[in-house]
Amino acid sequence: EIVMTQSPATLSVSPGERATLSCRASQSVSSNLAWYQQKPGQAPRLLIYGASTRATGIPARFSGSGSGTEFTLTISSLQSEDFAVYYCQQYNNWPLFGQGTKLEIK
Amino acid sequence: QVQLVQSGAEVKKPGASVKVSCKASGYTFTSYGISWVRQAPGQGLEWMGWISAYNGNTNYAQKLQGRVTMTTDTSTSTAYMELRSLRSDDTAVYYCARVWDILTGYSHFDYWGQGTLVTVSS
Asked: Which residues of A fall within a CB distance of 8 Å from B50?
């Protein structure tokens, strides 16, 4: 059974700075990896799929990279609206989410 | 525009059943699947299962096998999720989400419903 591990659990970054979030799979999921953003009281929003393809309407400051077992979500210059919880999800077989990274204002 | 609109909040007693609906609009319902994802208070996202709106095929998370049933009504573009023998740890927000892959369910989720809070309490 695949295990998805996100790190760190909480990331404190100042507005305007870069944020780098990690997601590791216990076995290869190829490029079948998505990232979601969730704000309090809202449904998750798709940011990235196929490890690196931005979803419709997602700003260019969000980028994804990686393949196999190691993946990264980078937010190049944090805006106030970017502080939220981020989840990775593999879909190489039945979907499985990581436990999330909370991105908070430093 | 694509929309998934879910039914309202429910309060149920332990041992009861709940059925949540998810009405789709803005796309061809039978060209996609629907997955259900739940989120317990303060916790992460848990995938529950998938149904193809194309052919009705389903696959459920192992831990929910025997307690969950997912169906669709293509005449109204609505998906349903029924969970039986409810326990207190089933208290969660339940989301439906559109799935690209109609044959395997192996996919990301590009549109989500607004969520339905199900509270299980005696």
From this structure: 94-95
- Tally helices (H) and strands (E) across chain B: 0, 11
Dihedral sign for Cα atoms in the order B26, B68, A98, A95: negative
**Two structure tokens written together for B104:** 């395997």
Rounded to whole angstroms, the Cα distance separating B56 from A37 reads 30
- On chain A, the residues whose CB falls within 8 A of the CB of B107 are 91, 95
Asked if the Cβ–Cβ distance from B112 to A43 is below 8 Å, we say: yes
Structure tokens belonging to residue B5: 């609109």
- pLDDT tens digits, chain A, 106 residues: what are they? 899 999 999 999 999 999 999 999 999 999 999 999 999 999 999 999 999 999 999 999 999 999 999 999 999 999 999 999 999 999 999 999 999 999 999 9
Contact of A46 with chain B, judged by CB distance below 8 Å, is answered with: yes
